[in-house]
Design brief:
Distance between the termini: 47 Å
Strand content: under 5%
Structural class: mainly alpha
Number of helices: 5
Largest sheet: none
Shape: globular
Radius of gyration: 18 Å
Order of helices and strands: HHHHH
Length: 108
């Protein structure tokens, strides 16, 4: 008996989710190793990969990229309002929220 196309899609999506989760963990590990060695470019590359994977995971879960952006902004605003230590010490959360709200030029 042949597999139904929707069953194949469900299995493919499940495998993709597992693969993306493993990629996220791998990116975090690569970033930590690069930071420990003082390799800034390698650390930034690994962090960028992790961010991309997060967007892809959200998409595979059925959320739009804009919805993830909105959720990140909401998380930042909540953390700022709650007086998160990183915000109190450095103001990083406010700076990140401002950065994310900046209009972006269209890319080719």
């Amino acid at each position: 008996m042949a597999e139904r196309p929707d069953a194949v899609d469900i299995a493919k999506n499940a495998r993709t989710l597992e693969w993306l989760r493993a990629e996220l963990v791998g990116s975090a590990a690569q970033a930590m190793r690069a930071m420990a060695r003082g390799e800034e470019d390698a650390a930034l590359d690994a962090l960028a990969s992790g961010v991309v994977v997060c967007y892809l995971l959200a998409r595979r879960m059925g959320a739009s990229y804009a919805r993830l952006d909105n959720q990140v902004l909401a998380r930042l605003h909540n953390s700022i309002a709650e007086g998160h230590e990183i915000e109190q010490w450095y103001g990083d959360l406010t700076q990140l929220a401002a950065h994310l709200r900046q209009p972006r030029a269209p890319r080719p």
